[in-house]
Amino acid sequence: MNKQRVAMILMIILLMVLALMACEAPTPPPSGILFTYPTLAPSPMPGYDQDPAYAVAQATLAAGQNAIMDLSHQATVVSMNMEQAANAAAQSTVDYNQRQLLELSIQGTEISQNIARAAATQQFIAEQTQMVLNATGTAQSQVTTATYSAYILNVTQTAQAQAVLDVQATHAAQANATFTAYSLTATPWAAIQSEIVRTRNEANRRALWGEFVVTPLKVILATLVVVLLIVGGVMAYRRLMPVLELSLRTFISHDNDSPLLVDGTFVDAALPNRQLPSDQGVQIEIIDSSEPSITNWITEAEEKLRFYGEIQP
Amino acid sequence: MNVNRYLPAARYIAQAIPDILAQRGLIPFISRYVLTETQQGNAWLFIVMEVDPLNHLEEYATSDILDYISTSLNGLPVVISNSYGMRYAVLLGSQNLSW
Predict the structure, then answer these.
(1) How much is the ipTM here?
(2) pTM above threshold 0.80
(3) Using CB atoms and an 8 Å cut-off, which of residues 27-66 of chain B contact chain A?
(4) CA quadruple A307, A311, B3, B6: dihedral positive or negative?
């Protein structure tokens, strides 16, 4: 009874598996996944009476197990493939990044090389320019020297030729002409020499001017100033000393004891008949009007006073 | 006649006249002062100036100077006397003055 029930359950399960298999069989396998249809290989089961359905079921079971195993294997493979793909993708990303990094490093290196190359080029160009300038200056100097040497040689040859051909008098004229032409040339040496000659001439002119004009003029001016000071002092003394002397005399004689001169005798108003020195204060002479000179003075004064009408005749 | 009564006035004038001349820019070349009185009672003070060829005495004899001196001496009459020298004559007092 139990066997039959177990058998029935197994049968149902097999039928369900077969139905599932039948449902899955028409779907094509995904691309890229290895798939093989299972082959039904009936395996004998000892101890039981094998009927064809069981065998079929067994075969189907075996086939299903195989298929499940295959599917599991395929899933495992797919999973592995997926993992590998993921790893591959990550690896490719890492590789890509590393490649990018390498490329950037290469580019940086190239740029650094370019910079170094440019700096080296600039240095080279600068050195070349300096060399060219030095060479140009040297060449100019050499040209100048050569010109000057040629000129000197020419002058020397000319002088020698003239020395051979001319007499001593002609020598002097030639030397003079050579010196004149030499000083008028545009060479630096000629310019320096002409500048020296000009400076010497100017210094000589200044020396002559200072010797014959400035120095005597200074002496004359100093003498004139001294003379003017002396004359001014004398004139000031003559104009101012009387005033000063009179002021001093007036200051001394402010007291009321001024001496008086009465008829040729110095007297004091406070103390009559007192003899005083003649140099003290204002001296007033009292002279009688009968003195001839005084009479004349009085007559003249009264006439003028009558003329102006200020005194009665 | 007592001329001594004119001495204070004469002393005053003698002390003031140099400053008066100096105020007008004139140098007081004064040599002496002479006080006298006539019989008619006129008292004169003569201010005798030094005569020097270098001095321009005509500047001392202008009417402006005489008026200035007279005004400075409170209106006393002042005249110039320039015969045989040069003098200022100041009339200190008179019995017959018109003013």
Answers:
(1) 0.91
(2) no
(3) 27-30, 32-39, 42, 44-46
(4) negative
